[in-house]
Automatic annotation (TrEMBL):
Residues 203-230, 243-264 are annotated as: Disordered. This is DUF2064 domain-containing protein. Signal peptide: none annotated. InterPro entries: Nucleotide-diphossugar_trans, Trfase_1_rSAM/seldom-assoc.
Amino acid sequence: MSVTLLVIAKEPRPGRVKTRLTPPFTPGEAAALAEAALVDTLRAVAATPARRRVLVLDGEPGPWLPAGFDVVRQCAGGLDERLAAAFAGCDGPALLIGMDTPQVTPALLTVDFADCDAYFGPADDGGFWALGLAEPCPELLRGVPMSTSTTGAAQRSRLVGAGLRVRDLPRLRDVDTAADATAVAAAAPAGVFAAELGRLGTATAPVPGQVPGRSGGRTPDRAAGPATGWNEGFVAGLKAVRAAGTGTGGRDTGPVSGQRGAGR
């Protein structure tokens, strides 16, 4: 059964995306990470068999957009309305994902509705990273409270309440905070997102004597002693990402048009 793959995203412009990453990152750095996440996501979608690939975009496309995608504008309204409108534009089975899970792979996106009516991908924060419908029905999304810790449960209950047979996809962690970014990069060390996080490096992590959210490669004052707490964990995470990236783990990102990518 041929499936339409939908990616709902925002143009990765500073101040408009990944605002919860600031601090410790600057708005420009947060936008670069959002763009990198989008590139990884679009690459995974491009490598997945599909009837059609659609980017449902808030903003303008950039050089990060690979060939083979149709671009449609997000409608006005809340997130539930925008998701509903994305499905309304499909005339057959469709799977929708966002831009916050750059660790996604073609294997996760290859779905078959032969023995189910819906796919549901839960996120660690209580939301969901994927939603698939054999027969797209906008009313299955309208009115579902979005961006809460119970959004995923509410959406899945809506599907079950409509009598749909639901198949669950693996739970994934999406990128909202700096801790999320480190964990997700470690899960996909060969991706563009992990490379961008590594490029930003420990200079972005808050250190004694440095203003949070300001980077510039400043070396901490040795007299100040080692960083502790959140900074220590963040630096350790970045080291783990770099170490993992030197091996053979992670998925092959392959060549693609554009440079980096963005998210919802």
